[in-house]
Amino acid sequence: MSDIMEMKVSSKKPANFYVRSAAAFLKGIEAKAASDGKEAVEAKPPVDVLKISGLGEAIDTAVTAATKAQADGLATIEKIETGYPEMTNGRGCGHIVITLKRK
Fold first, then answer.
1. Across the chain, what does the average pLDDT equal?
2. d(CA 39, CA 67)
3. Contact 6, 25 (CB under 8 A)
4. Do β-strands 49-55 and 95-102 pair in parallel, antiparallel, or remain unpaired?
5. Cystine design at 18: which of 4, 41, 48, 65 (Cβ 3.0–4.6 Å)?
């Protein structure tokens, strides 16, 4: 399987949310039946490559999610790209893309 999933992080949600999301992408999700008013969840296979990107204040969140996935033994960091893209309001903003490969 050579799926590449992109996960864009923001500073609106806590880093732990993205840590759990990255783990779910790399481990896959088991199917769950509907219960207690919750909808059923279908099974999703793990992805081989996960790209985590963050812009501006979310860079720290992206780095946290990637390093935690590596520390937990779920993936290895294959590549780190940084940039300073132009924004529509004229000011640039820092940007990071971290590529993880599932172990």
1. 92
2. 32
3. no
4. antiparallel
5. 65
- Quick: pLDDT tens for 54-103: 999 999 999 999 999 999 999 999 999 999 988 888 788 999 999 999 99
Q: Residue 15: which pLDDT band, with cuts at 50, 70 and 90?
A: very high
Q: Which letter does DSSP use for residue 4 in this model? A: E
Neighbours of 64 (CB within 10 A): 19
The CA-based dihedral angle spanning residues 41, 44, 103, 3, taken in that order and rounded to the nearest 10 degrees: -140
E-assigned strand segments in 1-103: 4-9, 49-55, 75-83, 95-102
Instruction: Dump the DSSP string for 19-46.
Output: HHHHHHHHH-B--B--BTTBPPB--BPP
Q: 57 near 103, Cβ under 8 Å?
A: no
